[in-house]
Write a structure and sequence with these properties.
The chain has helices at residues 10-21, 26-44; strands at 47-60, 65-70, 76-77, 80-81, 84-89, 95-101, 113-117, 128-136, 139-148. The chain is α+β, with helices and mostly antiparallel strands.
Length: 152
């Protein structure tokens, strides 16, 4: 059994561990240990959703790469704000939208943020973006890139 994000459930691991040690026969114990090891291995490379935001340093959709300078968490050294440089993978499934305040938001709230689809070419060095990423181990994979616009 797996949850919506693909993580092995702890309860399954505990049951398999009990089966492995229950003396239910050598074959049953070996099978349970194999399944438990595979499930534990899958849980090691966890995926999680994180949003990163900052200024685009470079974007190369053909190479599948965007480099971002992120401010947060706020760090200052010798009076200078420290940036975290992140390299984020782009895929064919990555979506690109522009977001700005306006009328016609799905929420019905006047002045709420409204998104519209854009092309990857609309994002360039210096653009301020928020990127919804899936973290898989050390990899950051962009699911959605939101170009933040102050004016239309």
């Amino acid at each position: 059994m797996r949850d919506a994000r693909g993580h092995a459930e702890i309860g399954v691991l505990l049951v398999l561990a009990m089966l492995a040690g229950s003396g239910g026969g050598a074959a049953a114990g070996a099978a349970a240990r194999t399944v438990a090891a595979a499930a534990a291995g899958a849980a090691i490379v966890k995926s999680s959703m994180v949003t990163h935001s900052g200024a685009v340093v470079s974007i190369e959709p053909g190479a599948g790469k965007l480099v971002l300078d992120e401010v947060g968490p706020w760090r200052v050294r010798d009076g200078v704000t420290q940036l975290t440089r992140r390299t984020i993978e782009l895929t064919k499934a990555t979506t690109y939208v522009a977001s700005q305040r306006g009328d016609g938001a799905a929420s019905g709230f006047g002045g709420d943020f409204v998104e519209r689809e854009i092309a990857s070419a609309d994002i360039h060095a210096g653009s301020f973006v928020a990127i919804e990423c899936e973290h898989r181990g050390a990899r950051m994979i962009a699911l959605k890139i939101i170009l933040v616009q102050s004016e239309p």
